[in-house]
């Protein structure tokens, strides 16, 4: 089957959409259930001897440390994804994430095995980071490279939908555990483990679904022609390092605000500082995830109509406008204020997340595309999301107010907007292997012709 046949086959498109959404939902459920638990119970269960304040910082630090291993996961998955294919890496990363998550649910606490407990927790979190670093690139390329040129924005939003869905699932199940199944001390004793153990069921479902999809037509053509790079990462950084930095800053602008919610900080702030009920806050977070889902989906459609860059600029303008009001709403508006703040956050996040997959896929040449999108995404996650909850907690404890946090979020949004202006919109560019010269030139205002000549075979 040719690439064009695959692209125009509605059944294949539906299968790919379903597989990428389900797979990324499971991956990010696993990732977010950790962040949710870190904000609620890990300080007590694994870091209690350090004291409450330091224990919370250490708990949020384990959320961030895993991000430092995302680039390694992206390097490995990118290398083999550009060498042996997108689909194989999707299956491997899914299994790795699920196993690490399930083992966290079986982990003894500090009270049971002492210092070994936080050490093992950190090791398993690192495995989650490796998996997350490699999963996203494969999922988005499977979606975008199968799609017609005029539908790449919405096709690229499919795997993006797995992030708010994973957050919704993580928040919803945790709310069910804290409010119904294991309220109070029961959640602290055993209820927190259940969401982690559920990963075993989800991983089986995801494995079966992802095994059914066909390989990306772009990679199939690359392999047929023998045009894979021996070491794609080397080519990426030798010829496209500035592109990696700019595109990473774009995602960092989204992630810094995003991890205020998904990283657990806003939940903890609403519960411990504003004294809102835990289950009520988790339900509000679930509603925010629903809004994030629909804003991400809408942004994918917008990206096909008004372009990737324009959609991003609207999103960053909204982010910059809300970073001060959201904390005022949470601090003064009670539970309704929290809902309103989460709606504002989730809407802006969708606008700066929905078009990301299509834009990333269109700015990197085919033979290094998996490496490019994966590593760039991982670096952006470190710059924007890794330690954002911990930084926010430190700023809150140091200054006693949220003004410094809002300033931090505003700076990240402005940097993301500036980086967006430095990239060119590449909507509709051919993604196939025989178009690498065009793909390698013009992604930014700084691209040199020498890059295009290397990919076209000219010296």
UniProtKB/TrEMBL annotation:
PROSITE patterns found in the cross-reference section: MFS, SUGAR_TRANSPORT_1
Gene3D superfamilies: MFS general substrate transporter like domains (1.20.1250.20)
Domain of life of the source: Bacteria
A Pfam family of this chain: MFS_1
Gene Ontology MF terms: symporter activity
Keyword Membrane: yes
Transmembrane segments annotated in the record for this chain: 16-42, 54-76, 88-107, 119-144, 165-184, 190-209, 241-261, 281-300, 312-331, 337-361, 373-392, 404-423
CDD domains in the cross-refs: MFS_ShiA_like
Residue stretches making up the Major facilitator superfamily (MFS) profile domain: 16-428
Localization: Cell membrane
Membrane topology: Multi-pass membrane protein
Keyword Transport in annotation: yes
Matches recorded under InterPro entries: MFS, MFS_dom, MFS_trans_sf, Sugar_transporter_CS
SUPFAM superfamilies: MFS general substrate transporter (SSF103473)
GO cellular component labels: plasma membrane
Keywords linked to the UniProt accession: Cell membrane, Membrane, Symport, Transmembrane, Transmembrane helix, Transport
Chief location of this protein within or outside the cell: membrane
Homology family: Belongs to the major facilitator superfamily. Metabolite:H+ Symporter (MHS) family (TC 2.A.1.6) family.
Chain's role: May be a proton symporter involved in the uptake of osmolytes such as proline and glycine betaine.
Protein name stated in the entry: Putative proline/betaine transporter
């Amino acid at each position: 089957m040719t690439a064009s046949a695959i692209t125009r086959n509605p059944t294949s498109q539906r299968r790919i959409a379903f597989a990428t959404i389900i797979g990324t939902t499971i991956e990010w459920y696993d990732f977010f259930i950790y962040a949710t638990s870190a904000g609620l119970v890990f300080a007590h269960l694994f870091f209690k001897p350090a004291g409450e304040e330091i224990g919370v910082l250490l708990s949020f630090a384990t959320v961030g440390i895993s991000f430092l291993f995302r680039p390694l996961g992206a390097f490995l998955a990118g290398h083999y994804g550009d060498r042996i294919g997108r689909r194989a890496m999707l299956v491997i990363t899914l299994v790795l994430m699920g196993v690490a998550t399930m083992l966290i649910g079986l982990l003894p606490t500090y009270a049971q095995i002492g210092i070994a407990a936080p050490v093992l927790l950190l090791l398993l979190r690192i495995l989650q980071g490796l998996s997350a670093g490699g999963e996203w690139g494969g999922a988005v390329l499977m979606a975008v490279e199968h799609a017609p040129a005029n539908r790449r924005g919405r096709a690229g939003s499919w795997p993006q939908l797995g992030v708010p869905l994973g957050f919704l699932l993580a928040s919803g199940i945790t709310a069910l555990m804290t409010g119904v199944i294991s309220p109070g001390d029961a959640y602290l004793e055993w209820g927190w483990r259940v969401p982690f153990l559920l990963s075993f069921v989800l991983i089986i479902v995801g494995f079966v679904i992802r095994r059914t999809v066909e390989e990306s037509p772009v990679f199939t053509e690359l392999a047929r022609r023998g045009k894979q790079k021996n070491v794609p990462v080397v080519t990426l950084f030798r010829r496209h390092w500035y592109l990696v930095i700019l595109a990473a800053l774009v995602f960092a602008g989204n992630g810094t605000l995003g991890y205020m919610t998904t990283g657990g900080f806003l939940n903890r702030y609403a519960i411990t500082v504003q004294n809102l009920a835990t289950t009520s806050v988790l339900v509000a977070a679930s509603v925010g995830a629903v809004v994030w889902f629909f804003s991400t989906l809408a942004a994918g459609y917008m990206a096909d109509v008004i372009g990737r860059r324009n959609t991003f600029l609207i999103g960053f303008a909204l982010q910059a406008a809300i970073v001060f009001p959201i904390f005022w709403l949470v601090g003064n508006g009670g539970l309704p204020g929290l809902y309103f703040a989460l709606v504002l956050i989730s809407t802006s996040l969708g606008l700066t997340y929905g078009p990301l997959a299509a834009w990333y896929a269109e700015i990197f040449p085919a033979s290094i595309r998996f490496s490019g999108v994966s590593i760039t995404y991982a670096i952006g996650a470190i710059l924007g999301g890794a330690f954002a909850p911990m930084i926010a907690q430190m700023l809150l404890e140091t200054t006693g107010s949220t003004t410094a946090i809002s300033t931090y979020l505003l700076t990240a949004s402005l940097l993301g907007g500036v980086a967006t202006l430095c990239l060119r919109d590449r909507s509709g560019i051919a993604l196939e292997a025989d178009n690498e010269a065009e793909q390698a030139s013009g992604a930014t205002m700084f691209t040199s012709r020498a890059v295009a000549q290397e990919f076209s075979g000219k010296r």
